[in-house]
Amino acid sequence: MNAIEIEVDTDRCVGGGQCVIVAPEIFGQGDDGIVTVLRLPRPDEVAAVREAVVLCPGAVLALHGADEESAPDGG
Ligand code: SF4
């Protein structure tokens, strides 16, 4: 069983809130608009987190340790 981990590079966050729209249980925004991680996703919420990773315009988010994780960019 893998531990799920969300990596956030806040320096790149532009505060648009796409992640909050698709996964409001997991992502929030501070007063400055910068993303915050509220908690780790349950298994049924992983898909929404994965969608947030894809939609994020700043490539701020990364999901690690989730089953069926794919890394198309190869690092
Ligand atoms: S979608 Fe990306 S850039 Fe936009 S608020 Fe979320 S983490 Fe920041």
Automatic annotation (TrEMBL):
Name of the protein: Ferredoxin
PROSITE patterns according to UniProt: 4FE4S_FER_2 (PS51379)
Domain 4Fe-4S ferredoxin-type stretches: 4-32
Domain of life: Bacteria
Keywords (A to Z) from UniProt: 3Fe-4S, Electron transport, Iron, Iron-sulfur, Metal-binding, Transport
Residue runs in coiled coils: none
InterPro entries: 3Fe4S_ferredoxin, 4Fe4S_Fe-S-bd, Fe-S_cluster_ET
Taxonomic source organism: Streptomyces humidus
